[in-house]
Amino acid sequence: GRSVAIWGAGSKGATFLNIADRHRTVSWAIDINERKTGKYIPGSAQRIIAPSALPSVSPDVILVMNPNYVDEIRAQLASAGLSTEVTVVQ
User: What pTM was computed for the model?
Assistant: First the structure.
């Protein structure tokens, strides 16, 4: 019953969604690359949104594909006033 997003719409994120999310529990893919915004993950079809759209979708959990960006992601969430749970996928 919780809304889930994935941060990272590159090859690792797309592969994860196509292999591990067979029941389509992840609703959105978040990526800072503006050229990806509004597009969809190939195969699994999650819509790719920009970080600026997070307040409007307000996911309960964000799965992070690259642990190097966890602090930056948490800072962006905090500045948006979101207390979203962040989990690193390794």
Answer: 0.91
